[in-house]
Structure formats: C-alpha cells, structure tokens
Amino acid sequence: MTQDQGVPLSSLQPGQEGEVLGLHAQGPIRQRLLEMGFIRGAHLKVEKLAPLGDPMELIIKGYHLSLRREESSCILVALTA
Amino acid sequence: MSHLVVALAGNPNCGKTTLFNALTGARHHVGNWPGVTVEKRSGAFEAEEGLRLEAVDLPGTYSLSAKSEDERIAGHFVSQGKVDLILNVLDASNLERNLFLTTQLLELGKPMVFVLNMVDDAERKGITFDRAGLETLLGGPVIATVGNREEGIAELKAAIASVAKGRDPRVRDWSREASGHGPGDYGHDIEGELVKLQTELARDEKLAASVPNRWLALQLLENSKEAHALVAASSARQAIEAQLHKSLAFLEKHLGADGQTLVAEQRYGFAHGLVKEMVKTDTPSGETPTQRLDGLLTHRYLGIPIFVAILTMVYVLSFVLGKYPQDWIGDAFKTMGDALGAKLPPGELTSLLVDGVIPGVSAVIVFLPVIMILMGCISFLEDTGYMARAAFIMDRVMHLMGLHGKSFIPLIMGSGCNVPAIQATRTIESKTDRLITILVTPLVSCSARLQVYIVIAGTFFTPIKAGLAIVAMHFLGLGLAMLMGRLLRSTLFSAETAPFVMELPPYRLPVAKTTAIHMWEKGSIFLKRAGTTIFAGATLVWFMSRYPGIANREWSAELLRNQQTVQALQIPQAEKDEQLAELHLAHESRIVNTSLAARFGRVLEPTLRPILDPDHTRPEAWKDVIALTAGFVAKEIVVSTMGVIHGASDEPKEGEKLSPLQVALRDHAGLTPLTALAFMVFILIYTPCIGTVIMIQRETGSWAWAFFTIVYGSVLGWLLSWGTVVVGRMMGMR
Ligand SMILES: Nc1nc2c(ncn2[C@@H]2O[C@H](COP(=O)(O)OP(=O)(O)OP(=O)(O)O)[C@@H](O)[C@H]2O)c(=O)[nH]1
Ligand SMILES: [Mg+2]
Fold it and tell me: Is A66 in CB contact (< 8 Å) with chain B?
C-alpha cells in the first residue's frame, strides 16, 4: 500500500482499525507520537470519541491513548477493518 | 558520607512512586527540582545490612529525548546526574511501550536493575514472562513486583545491593561483547553513521567523559534538545554538527526517513522482538474490566452527568465538610486571642500578639483542612485513573478556552477556595497549560468573596435581584477566566505547543496509605513553604490597619473608663453586654479609621473615585479602600473589617432583616445600588488574597507571575467596575 492511499486517523469511526503509514507532523508532536508507538506499520484501533466529539480514544501497542483531532489528523493510516 | 544514588526511571504511571515509598518507607523528603516546580522526592534506604543508598523518584517519562519539563528533568538527571544505578520500573502489563525508554536508558551504560511492576495486572491479562531470558537480553537483574502490595520488595533490595556492590552475575559487561555496546542493533546503515558521529564526538574529551558517546550520537540523530545543547557547548561543535548533517542526509537518502523516525522504529523493533521472544500473552477474550467501566464512565450521554456528580462530591467533601474543621480552627484561634487579650495587660506587645501574630497564624492554618481533603480527593482520582477520563471528557470545552482537559477540576475547585485550586494544577503535565490555568484561577469567585456579595447585594437590592447579582458575579468570574485563558494562550504563550497525547491508564484501586502520604506531603509542604510568607504578609497588613491607634494609651484608658462606667450601671446584663460591645466597636473603629491603612486609603481613593464615588458625593469613600486592603489578606475579613470601619456589627439583631452594618452602608456610607454593584465587581477581580498570591509564587516558581496576577487583576477589575458604572448610568441606574 502506498502513502497516498492512506486516510487521516481523525476520519476513522469508533470500531475501525488501521495501520500507521506515516506522520505529517514536525517537532515535538512528531517526537511524542513516535515514542508513543506511532511508527510505520503499527496497528491501531479507534475505541470511541469523547462525549463532546473530541478527543478520540484509541488502542495502540496494547494500551489506551487519547488524541485531539489536531494531532490525530496528522497521522496517516491505512484501514484494515 | 555520600551514599550511592539510585534513580527510579520509567514511564508515567508505572508505579515508581509506589515502589519508592515501599523502598524508603515514608521517610523521604519532597521538594522541587532546582529552578522548576516539578516535584523531587528523595530518601535514604538500606538495601542490605549496612548498605545505605539514596533513592530519587523521577518524573514519569516516555523517552529521554524529551520535550516537556518533567521529561527534561528525568533525562538530564539520569544522563548527567550523579546516578550510580538506574532502577528501570516497567509496567509489566504494557511492556512493549515501556521498553522503548529502556532502550535509551541502556545506552547510558550505567548499572541497571529492571523491575517488572504490576505483575498482578499482567497476570490478569494472561501475560507470562521468561525472566531469565529477559535478564540475559537486558543484561541486569529483572525483579517482579506488585508495588502497591509491597510484594517482591525484599528481592528487589537484594538485587539493588548486589548490583551496587558490583557483584551481580546477571549484570553483563557490554564493553566486552563483540558489538562493544549494549543490546539493540540499529542496522548496518545507522550503525555506520553512529560510528562516524562517535568519532567526531570523541574529539572533545571533556564531552566524551561526561556522557556516553553512543548515547549522545543516538540522541543527536533523534534530534534531542538536550543533546544539541551539549554539543553547542563543545569545542568540537563544528565538526560534530557537520557530521550530523551528513549522516542525516545519508540516512534520509538510503532509508527514506528522518533520523527521528528511523531510530524510533529500531527501538520499537528491539522492544517488539524482546516481547515476542520472552513474553507470552494469552489474553482472555472479551472486554477488560477497564473497558467495561469506561463503557459507563466515558459514555456518550452518561459520561458528563457522572463526571458532574463526582465533581460535586469532591466539592462537598472539600468545602462543605472541610468547612467544619476550618471553622473550629478559626474559632479556636479567636478564643485564644480573646482569652490572651483579656489576661495580658493592654499594650503594644499584647496587641502584637493578639492582633498580629495569632490572626496571622490562624490565616495560614485555616487552609490546611481544605488543602488536605482536596489533595486527597485529587490524588485518589488520579490513582484510580479517573483523572485522565475527566480530562478526556472535558477537553473539548477547555481547549476552546485555551486550556487543557485537566484544567477543569482546578478551575471549579477555585470556586471553593483559590489556594488549594492552584495547588491542584499540579496534575497538568504541560507547563504552559498549567501556568495559564494558575493565572486564570483567581478570577473564579471563591466562597469568601460570596460573603461580601451577600452583605452588599442584600443591602442594596431586592432579594430576587440580589440573588441574580450574586449568580452573575460567579458567571462573570468564569467567563473572565475563559477569556483570559484564550488571551494568554494567543499572546504570551502562542509559541508553545503541547500536544495532547494522553494515556488512559487502566482503572486501579488506590491504596489508602498512598493517599494518606500524599495528603500529608501536600499539607506539610504548604505549611513549610507558603506558611511563613503568608503569615508575615497577613501580620503586616493586620498591623497596618491597627497602628498607630493601637498604641494610643489615652484611647485605651478611655475605653477602660467607659467600660467601668457601664459595668457600674444598674441595668440588665444583656443590655450591659450590648453597650460594652458597642463601646469596643467604637474604640476599634477609631483605631482603624486613623490607621496606616486608612492613610493608604486616602492616598489611593482618588484612583478609585470613578468606581466608588462617580458623583463626588462620598467624602468617606476612602473607607472602602481599607476594606479592600483587608481583602488582600483574606476575602473572609472584608465584611468584618467593614463592620469595624463603620462602627456597626455585621450580625443582624433579633427580628431585623438587615444587620447594623447593612443599615450603616445603606444610610450613611453613600453607596448607591450602582456603586455597590461596581464594588462587587471590583471585589471579584481586583487582587487575589495573599494566600493565593504566595501559592502562585510557589507553583510557578516566580514572583514575577505572582505580581503579574495582582497587576492584571487590579487593572481588569478597575476597567470592569468602571464599565459597570458607565453602562449602568446609560441604562438609567443609579
Ligand atoms: N495493580 C497494581 N497497581 C499498582 C502497582 N504498583 C502501583 N500501582 C498503582 O498504580 C498507580 C500509579 O502508581 P504511581 O506510583 O503513582 O506511579 P508513578 O510511576 O509514580 O507515576 P508518575 O509519577 O505519574 O509517573 C497507583 O494507583 C498505584 O497504587 C502494582 O504492582 N499493581
Ligand atoms: Mg510518581
């Protein structure tokens, strides 16, 4: 799968799963996302959205994480389920 | 004798502090890291008979190439500090991500002990470990523990002792391995560039001696600030930076990604490989208890009502229940002061004690119950894992205000008392978010200000309008906090971005002991750090409002004569008491109205005239300034000070709706409904009390921010009260 087939993580619905293709962020955000496990090929699943629609909760590397739309839109993923 | 230093390093929430407490007992010292307001815990413990070590609990960190303040401290301390042994705490139920940091720690080349903490959770998730295998691959003892039940602590101490003495067979000497470095191979291309970088780094002998070359080279590839700073100070700076540039370009060309990404991928590759080989997961299918609980607690519709309910409970516990001990303490000090005042011969020393020292001490101690209860609740919510959910639920709203989801609870608690609310901002990890929250919290109207509104609004408005005015004050406070939050974010702090990447840890049942330790720590820190300053400030202002009248012997003698006259009268005791009280009040009133504070009031009054006296009909408007000065000590004493100034008690007489003070305010003070409203607005905003100011200084680590709060509050307060007068007049109000 190539990079341009990916969608931003923020567009995923609860229950959908995907694989990280790359990050469109720079600086501290990029560093933070990398060390939290958003490396190429990492598998993730969107668990739910907060009651007010943002942030989202997802599972990556076996733990739960919450991300604002601002950050999740920088993450390019390929849908797997 | 200096002890060997053991640093506890690990991801946030993996149980470092719990293990630290288990190792050291509760005998430890809590302070701040130099120059910052991140907590530093350290304490001595005996790893075995006669071997004393010093343990240092580090802030949780996901990596060492970190950006946030907490992480920088942890990174700096383990890489450069005098750390003799690293105790790497790992959450066994979430090993892969925890090992990412381990790969960085290993590169420091220090003796390490690994702790698989939370093995109970791991077991529940069906995870089992090949401990011997892990020991070989990591090159150090691996100990399984359950921190909150203090299981495995003896074994952990033994391992620390044997590693500290350099006699542990499990410790691998990586320098003698074929690779010449620790575990973790970054692949042919990266390793090649690392060697080149290390060659350049080795040119600066001082640098090479201070940190391991391989670690520094990797940190440079990862673009770590700390590493760049080290290089910037090096004599070989140009050569190193040139090589780094070349290496990054080479890697980009050959591996198609930047250094940061490549190194992170390799680190996770190592972690993943280790987990795959040494860890067996047989997770029972279905939802975990945490997921089931979250199904309710972060539910689309129920999440918010439940959050509100929990918040209400914390509020009631802290400020309604906490009010009882607070009142007891206040009363006890008052009784003590009165008793001493009656016993000791009247004079300046007595008044120093009775009017200065005792109220000063009281002004500090009354905060203790609320601080301890609120901090206990917050520590409980944090340890259960709910705090992260609360932030998750509220983040959308708070983000609009330029704040963080975790800012919500401190802000709401501010409506009880600003002092513990500011202390509660410690839960916010990002420094900028925390600073903004601290700076806007004083705008939230606290319960002490409520007392002032009740007296003033009750005097000048009908009951319904008074209620509305009081509610309006609270909304005005919250609204201003939001506005200022946005404003500060977009002006002073626009450059700083803290990504909202927050872990939602599994729910856990906290241990009562931990919560108790936490409450105790917060209470004693408050007393030790803030207490003395608050005491000094409170006593000073108290004295300003008493001196020089208090030293006037003639007045004291006159009071005594008049009291004796009343005592000699043939009237019922109740009447006598009333007359005595009146005499006393008149005496006090005379003192306060000629005090230094009164002089200050006369000087300051012209600047406040547009608010307090727009029609120039109030020759005594300066008296309000005395009350405002008292409000700087504590908003609680504004009403009683007004009582003294106007020589009228603030307790309503039986069968009367208004207290004598309220009658005096209405009939003699010259305030109109409009200026009264402006006065309320001003009381809301003008300056936080001294306790809050000192707390801001403590929690931001800077007097500049503390003064900033006073100044911006006063300016904003003036403008808005003036606006109230202007708009009110346009609407025909008087
Ligand atoms: N089930 C279980 N819970 C534990 C264990 N050790 C600690 N906890 C709990 O985990 C939570 C977090 O523990 P802390 O010691 O505060 O974690 P920390 O690493 O100091 O966290 P930070 O300082 O935020 O980085 C607390 O609620 C502890 O009671 C354990 O072995 N098993
Ligand atoms: Mg801790």
Answer: yes
Nearest-CA distance B478 → chain A (Å): 20
C-alpha to C-alpha distance for B346 and B354, rounded to whole angstroms: 10
Arithmetic mean of pLDDT, B176-197: 84
State the pLDDT confidence band at B539, using cuts at 50, 70 and 90: confident
Can you give the residue ranges of every domain in chain B? 4-176, 187-281, 303-491
Of B67, B290, B304, the CB nearest to A51: B304
Dihedral angle sign, alpha carbons of residues B94, B96, B99, B104: negative
Architecture of domain B4-176: 3-Layer(aba) Sandwich (3.40)
Inform me whether the C-beta atom of residue B288 falls under 8 Å from chain A C-beta atoms: no
Per-residue DSSP letter, B510? P
pLDDT at B479 over 90: yes
Residue (of B380, B442, B363, B364) closest to B410 by Cα position: B442
Query: What ipTM was predicted for this assembly?
Result: 0.94
Q: Average pLDDT over chain B, rounded to whole?
A: 89
The domain made up of B187-281 is a member of CATH 3.30.70.270: no
* CA separation for the pair B350, B471 (Å, rounded): 42
Predicted TM-score (pTM) of the model is 0.88
More confident residue, B619 or B322: B322
Torsion, CA B189, CA B192, CA B196, CA B199, rounded to 10: 150
B474, B480 contact by CB (below 8 A): no
Model confidence band, residue B1 (pLDDT cutoffs 50, 70, 90):
very low
Alpha helices of B401-462 — where are they, by DSSP H?
408-413, 418-423, 431-440, 447-460
- B184 pLDDT band, cuts 50/70/90, is confident
Q: Which of residues 3-22 of A touch B (CB under 8 A)?
A: none
* 3-state SS assignment for residue B273: helix
What is the reported pLDDT for B91? Answer: 96
Among residues of chain B, what percentage have pLDDT more than 90?
49
What domains can you pick out in chain A, each with its CATH number? 7-80 (2.30.30.90)
pLDDT at B496 (0 to 100): 66
Cβ neighbours of A4 (radius 10 Å): 7
Pick A64's closest partner by Cβ from B260, B303, B504: B504
Name the residue of chain A whose CA is nearest to B396's CA: A54
Helix (H) or strand (E) holding B45: strand B39-48
User: How many whole angstroms separate alpha carbon B69 and alpha carbon B490?
Assistant: 21
Q: What is the pLDDT of residue A2?
A: 46
